[in-house]
Amino acid sequence: MVLLLATRSLARGRGSLLLNPSKIPIPLSFRAATKFSPSYKMSTLSGSLPVVLCGRTTAIGKPVSEALLPDYEVIHFIQTNEAVLAELPHLLAGRDPQAAASNDVGTHDYSRPARAVIFGRGYEMEDIEVFRKATSGSASGPTAWVVGDPAKKPKSNGPPPPAGYAKVAADLAKEKLDQWKASGADKDELFFY
């Protein structure tokens, strides 16, 4: 990859960047025009969509990750609030999480930015709002936020989820992500499952 230094051409007053040494004018709006353009969407929506899965246990996270395939690829699994705050901005920007993976859930393929974040029912809505604010401006494109419905949150001292829970949760999350993709995946949205 070649790094070109850009300088603003104020003398011309045309609102262009000049790339040295070739002096090819590039409109200032180039980044904004291409970032969310149809070709941008097509390139990030073709194939499996990279997602970050946030859950409390690998016992649920691993089967959810597997059940999301082939349409949705879990690239990283996060288990704590602190890790969400530290790692999620990097993953949404298309960078590795800057921390060694603490589990074997997901592909750990960070070559494409995450386009969706799925939270298990162990996360509080207040925390998710903090995460969304903390990552604002980090994402390389619109992001789907898929969250366990607070009205269906299990009691903290309740029994473990029943057999088959991971498949049901994955199917519900897929449904919401399918809706987002069908609507164009062109804006940040919050979905409850």
Automatic annotation (TrEMBL):
Q: Which superkingdom?
A: Eukaryota
Region called Disordered, residue ranges: 137-165
The name this protein goes by in its record: Uncharacterized protein
